[in-house]
Amino acid sequence: MLESTLTALELLFTVRGLLFLGLGTVIGLVFGVIPGLGGTTAIALLIPLTFSMQPYEAITLMGGIMGSVSFGGSITAILLNTPGIAPAAATCFDGYPLAQQGKAGLAIGAAGAASSVGGLIGVVILVAVIPLAKQIVLLFGPPEFFMLAIMGLSAIALSTGGRFLRGLISGLLGLLLSFVGYDAVSGGIRFTAGSEYLWDGISLVPALTGLFAISEMINLSVKGGTVVTSGQANVRITRVTDGVRAVFTHFGVTLRGSAIGAFIGAVPGVGGTVAAFLSYASTLHADRDPASFGKGNIKGVIAPEAANNSKDGGALIPTLAFGIPGSAEMAIFMGVLVQHGIEPGPMLLIEHQGIAFSLILALSLSCVLATAVGLAVTRQLALITLVDVHILVPSVVAISLVGVYALHSDIGDVILAFVFGGLGYFMIRFGYPRITMVIALVLGELAERSFHQSMMMSDGALSVFATRGISLALFILTAFILVTPAIRLLFARLRARGAVGRKRPIAAAPARGRRLARLVVPALVLAVAVVMLAWSYQYDGRTRMVPALTAWALAVLALFDIAAATGTRAGDYIAAFFTGSLGGPEGDEGKPQPMRRVLAACAWVTGYLGAVLLAGFHVATPVYVALYVIKHGKISVRKGVIAAVATAGFIALTFEWGMKFQLYRGVLFGG
Q1: % of the chain residues with pLDDT over 90
Q2: I need a surface site. Which of 170, 226, 390, 472 has the fewest CB within 10 A?
């Protein structure tokens, strides 16, 4: 091993080696920052460029990309609530509130340091575990995958704070959406309404882009002002070192997130999104003040960012040792290895140890280099939060939708992102947590497939989950995660009842108009549950079983939500049970905004989508940006033209010239 390490160091620390490492790091940061792209797209696009490279040069380039893309994705997640890559969605929940408080530098500093430390810990785990990798990977079968997915879904109960009922409803909606498309068990197609686009299911990147980027831009458009909500006088963009220091102050959080990321990364097919959300949920659960999460708790940035980078080290374990890709990114990376005559598997560590350790070193150094580059420009990046939102909104919407289209060159992805953008805004407006829907979207298909495979293994006996050691351990851990908050709630209620002279707080009844508005969403949810339930019974028993059970559960919870919104005595009891509070039903998110502003904001996004479908991105983008800034934002014509030219120029330079993408040209110009 020492000889292989020295050989790898000798290859890396050459002019060409350092050049390719730096190039890969910069490319990874750029692809991470742009919503909808990410490391998978970067590696796929650069494969042709590696044909003429030496193996170690190609490996170094790819290692630089994989090590830096996670931090790139967190930058826009923090500044604009727009995750550049899917795993960075977990960083939005506390990173963006910190940016709104004028602490963007603090959040980015913490994200960068956590990414570096997490990446290094992931590499250390990779080096330590490779000799034992075969035994570890082979321990996981369908029952273990199912229980792992259920453990991830249990994070729903931990990530909703005082909105437990709404969180469960969001999660069940996400589960139903995850069942759309091809059913891997029966081989049939479900819930597509005749659309061929939906045969492959709900694509995660467009859905996340809509839920976070588009919905947040609609929200900012409605509110106006700047991203920072605490006032420019209180903005501090010089707290980068405080963020770095926080990673080591809360080093236990960093270690836990890194361990979760490496463990989840080593399980083939699960991916970094699950790792980030599990790390976030476990940190929330273990914290003494879980209510502070989602409001700007720095631990909510450190935990997912540590997991984001450490998962690469874990994903390389099955990739290098057995030729089993741990993620989509690793599947494409395997193509790079094969292209250069290197067959992933047990013989790789015997015949090409120098190559393997070159990758490990490149991954390690790129984590540190990406953080250094990112933190060097943090103060400049943080100024984005002071820009008028009416300049940011059209640019971010346009770049996000272009990035979504560039992912598969499919206009259906753009429409899907738009639909989820509207859904995400109303989830923000009525206080339905988006995190639970994301977790369910990620884990739903894995849970259903693994459950059916487990039933086939055991001839339908549920005991299969209790007779296998790892499966049983995951079940006990899941039960512990779910029961602990309930125990805390029980003790809190007992203390409140025992307080002398303590009176039960009476919640003020909401105005009749607001109460009626509060009933609209659960009524719509109930309608969706009924439709999906009826729809599921069109399929055979195995195909409909899990969707039908999910729809039944959603219908029951929607009825509970309707009861809680009525303000009746029974509704108050239901609300108290789910919120853990005797103070009445769950409140809406923020104060209501005038309907005129909401409709105007939605109309602008809808108009842009219509213009894209009709005339393509080239025509629609500059016109949309200029008109939005000038007409809706009431900003000067000069700034509107500058914003339009800058946005169109960035898209042309980055996507068309740099990445050779052919953008959609609209029905008027041949599509």
Answers
A1: 11
A2: 472
Q: Tokens standing for 283?
A: 């940190």
DSSP alpha helix (H) spans, 13-141: 15-33, 39-46, 55-80, 89-100, 104-129, 133-138
Cα 233 from chain centroid (whole Å): 32
- CB atoms under 10 Å from CB of 369, counted, come to 23
Query: In this model, does residue 522 exceed pLDDT 80?
Result: yes
pTM: 0.69
- Other C-beta atoms closer than 10 Å to the C-beta of 626 total 21
pLDDT in tens, 597-633: 889 989 999 999 999 999 999 999 999 999 999 999 8
Give 278-319 as a DSSP string: HHHHHHHHHSS-GGGTTS--THHHHHHHHHHHHHHHHHHHHH
Q: Within 377-468, where are the H helices?
A: 378-382, 389-408, 411-430, 434-457
Which amino acid, 417?
Answer: A
509 pLDDT above the threshold of 50: no
- Measured in degrees and rounded to the nearest 5, phi and psi for residue 181 equal 105, -155
Distance CA 191, CA 181 (A): 6
Residue whose structure tokens are 């994903």: 315
CA distance linking residue 548 with residue 453, whole number of Å: 18
Paired with 181 in beta bridges are 190
- Report the number of secondary-structure helices (H) and strands (E) in the chain: 29, 2
- As a whole number of angstroms, the distance between CA 187 and CA 185 comes to 6
Cα angle, residue 372 at apex, residues 368 and 376 outer, rounded to 5°: 170
Position 563, amino acid: A
> pLDDT value at position 585?
44
**Distance separating alpha carbons of residues 57 and 50, to the nearest angstrom:** 8
- What digits encode the pLDDT tens for the residues 84-137? 777 787 888 888 888 888 888 888 888 888 888 888 887 787 777 766 655 665
In three state form, how does the secondary structure of 603-642 look?
Answer: HHHHHHHHHHHHHHHHHHHHHHHHHHHHHHCCCCHHHHHH
For residues 393 and 47, the model is more confident at 393
Q: Distances in Å between the alpha carbon of 554 and those of 48, 495, 506, 550, 560?
A: 48, 33, 29, 6, 10
**In the 8-state DSSP scheme, what is residue 81?**
S
- Largest Cα–Cα distance of the chain, in whole Å? 80
The CB density around residue 234, as the number of other CB atoms within 10 Å, is: 11
Q: Which amino acid is at 150?
A: I
Query: Which residue's entry shows tokens 């639970």?
Result: 436
**Rounded CA separation 317/265 (Å):** 8
In angstroms, rounded to a whole number, what is the distance separating the alpha carbons of residues 229 and 27? 32
Weakest-pLDDT range from 196-205, 380-389, 657-666: 380-389
How far is CA 416 from each of CA 32, 278, 404, 420, 634, rounded to the nearest angstrom? 21, 26, 10, 6, 30
Scored b (16 or more CB within 10 A) or e, 588-609 reads: bbeeeeeeeebeebbebbeebb
Query: What 8-state DSSP symbol labels residue 388?
Result: B
Determine the Cα–Cα distance for residues 523 and 559; give it in Å rounded to an integer.
8
Secondary structure letter of residue 132 according to DSSP: G
